[in-house]
Amino acid sequence: MTESKSNKPSFSQRHPFLFGFTMILAAVVLLTGAMAAFRHYIGGKALLPPAQRFAMVRIDGLISDSEKITEFIDTIKRDDTIKGVIIRIDSPGGVVAPSQEIFHAVQKLAKVKPVIASMAAVAASGGYYVACGAPTIVANPGTLTGSIGVLFETGNVVGLMEKLGIKHELIVSGKYKGAGSPFEPLTDEQRDYLQALVLNIHQQFVNDVAEARKLPREKVEALAQGQAFTGQQALANGLVDSLGGLDDAVDLLKARTGLTGQQVPMLEGPQKERAGFLRELLSELVTDVSGKLLLQ
Questions:
Q1: Given 45, 177, 272, 283, which residue is catalytic?
Q2: What's the CA gap between 128 and 175, in Å, rounded?
Q3: What is the pLDDT of residue 185?
Q4: Which residues lie closer than 8 Å to 182 by C-beta, 6 or more apart?
Q5: Given 91, 118, 125, 147, which residue is catalytic?
Q6: Is 290 a residue of the active site?
Q7: In the predicted model, what is the mean pLDDT of residues 100-119?
Q8: Is 125 a catalytic residue?
């Protein structure tokens, strides 16, 4: 009589070791998948962030645009997992309006989260302007900072064009429209006009520093003749609050947020896209011949 299928030994009974190994492997796969679902890394950053962390806003190099930086600041301002922010500055300055936009964005951020500015090798002019948006500024003793001032410069190739026999015609709608053209010498009126622009922006700079640092305006004006200071000198003049490196700034932020004694994750940004060499070179050449109004 043929043995019924119901009495036939199962796979697990016939191959217990292989069955056990398969079950263990399946469990590992499921566990790995579950972990991946809850913690998926993109470029080393967790999709689901920890409950509390810090953010670092990096201000590197010449300040020529503010959009990505202010967008990143706005993002971390609305992120409840961000408990405090470091503004890390390594910049010699830059264009006026972007520096002002970042300064105001940092000020607004400081109204909702603890913010500390940390100066690297240099945080001068526009870089110092940005730092003043933070209630507390930490500088290295050898950091170069300050350089509160405004400059406008333009090339003048009139003499070269005359030697080459090249003539240039400039047609404008008003006597000030061509001021700063490298192909025309400045008139006295144009020079006075440009000087007034520089002084107006300088006064804006001085006023913002005096208000942010809670210093008498007369004192800031005396420190705002374009001179740079070391971190030690800046501390003595009230331009920064303490001396130290990035680790010291982080420790201070931990104390402000009550997160002492633990390793706090750090979200850094914005990601900087480096332009190609030719693009950077052309951009610099265009700026040099067209004139520039800078916080440097």
A1: 177
A2: 35
A3: 76
A4: 154, 155, 156, 157, 158, 289, 290, 291
A5: 125
A6: no
A7: 98
A8: yes
